[in-house]
Amino acid sequence: MTRLDGPPRAYALAIKLLSLRPRSEKELFQRLEGRFGREEADATLSRLKKEGYLDDLSFAGWWISQRTNFKPMGGIRLRQELLQHGVAPDVVKEALGLLAPGSELAAALEVARRKLPHLAGDRVEQRLGLFLARRGFGRSVIDSVLRTLREQDGDFY
């Protein structure tokens, strides 16, 4: 077997991990390196990239899609999570650029409407704003959401 074919055990593990969910190059490299060493991990990643099984842009798109559908959050937090997964900053920027215009505002509004009934007492607006900030929404989006809720629902606190 040539070195280009990659170590069969490392390759098999990589395929198994990728079948469970997409992974970033860094994530997969760390898993393989810990078990097989740097050289085998590098060879396996090269083969996977060549075969089209490993691509950080498609991973970033998948990650954003999952977060948008199951736990909506803002671009700030999505960027932070993708960078933690080892996705290059330029790839993160490209992936976030593929989001539909206005989708972040719509997601923030949805999250705020779900959270609002659970907030009681004083400073509801402030607490809602802080919650949205923790979810990674920017100041302009938060201000727009609060303004929209005030206009549609009147005084919501």
Task: Describe the 3D structure.
- This protein is mainly alpha-helical.
- It has three domains: 3-54; 57-97, no CATH class; 103-153.
- It has nine helices and no strands.
- 71% of the residues lie in helices and 0% in strands.
Key descriptive features of the protein:
elongated, disordered N terminus, 157 residues, mainly alpha
Structure at a glance:
The chain is mainly α and 157 residues long. It has helices at 8-20, 25-36, 38-51, 56-70, 75-84, 89-97, 103-115, 124-134, 139-153.
- Kindly state the number of beta strands: 0
Write down the overall geometry.
elongated
The number of domains is: 3
* Helix-strand sequence: HHHHHHHHH
H/I helix tally: 9
Q: Which strand-content bin applies to the residues?
A: under 5%
Q: Terminal Cα separation, in Å?
A: 69 Å
Taking all residues together, what is the mean pLDDT?
Answer: 89
Q: Give the biggest beta sheet.
A: none
Low-confidence sequence ranges: 1-6
Binned, the helix content reads: over 70%
- Oligomeric form of this entry? single chain
Rg, Å, rounded: 21 Å
Helix/strand structural class: mainly alpha
Question: Layout of helices and strands, plus pairs?
Answer:
Elements (H helix, E strand, L loop, with lengths): L7 H13 L4 H12 L1 H14 L4 H15 L4 H10 L4 H9 L5 H13 L8 H11 L4 H15 L4
Helix pairs in contact: 1-2, 2-3, 4-6, 5-6, 7-9, 8-9
